[in-house]
Amino acid sequence: MSPVAAPAATWRVIAASVRGTSHARGDLPCQDAHAWRRLPGGALALAVADGAGSALHAEAGARAAAHAAVDSLVSSAPAVDAGDWTAALDHAMGAALVAVNDEAAKRQVEPRDLSTTLIACVVTADSVTVAQVGDGAAIVEGAEGMRALTEPTSGEFANETVFLTSAGAVEAAQRATWRGAARHLALFSDGLQGLALKLPARTPHEPFFVPLFAFAGEAHDPADAEAQLAAFLSGPRVTARSDDDITLVLVARDHA
In the predicted model, what is the mean pLDDT of residues 36-45? Predict the structure, then answer.
């Protein structure tokens, strides 16, 4: 007998990328980016990218990486076999690197001038699959509680991370697959790590996520909800702990 496919799930997605106070003081743009698309069968493709503060065109690198990763997952979706998104995510990370390199060539600069981290993810009715280069993290909440699927990757020195344009970064990317019916998911850039993760264990700080997940699950007007999320991320409760750019993508299973 053929296995019965999990019923399609519907999801609410609330996402925002905001400029940190340090960049506002320096009149610099937000160097974070995010992208997401709905896939056939109710799945979601999501990406978060954080451009390197030292990179001349960091915001362009982050934007190119996030959108290329999601576009690649959309293109790969028809060929995905038995819900195994691992190969598609590997391809998406490679496509993101190509996009960053192409953008650098257009600008006649070195790829390192567009250095960025990248988290790419697919969430389906019964699984979450993620690949990550650099810092930030992916958090899933299922029937047994919250867990981190990925964690920030450090470089050779303290406060240093790995970027998509680093040698061998795509091949060495973190990869994880979680099987289960996710209730909520969060992807975030490193500007939120001090609030979202318990250190040094790098496990989810549940009091931070519980109200945010409830907010995402109850949101009915996406534009209004994203404005509220951006205001929260730019507000004093967050900026008192972080002056960096911040991206947060919240996903809630819609039980309506």
Answer: 93
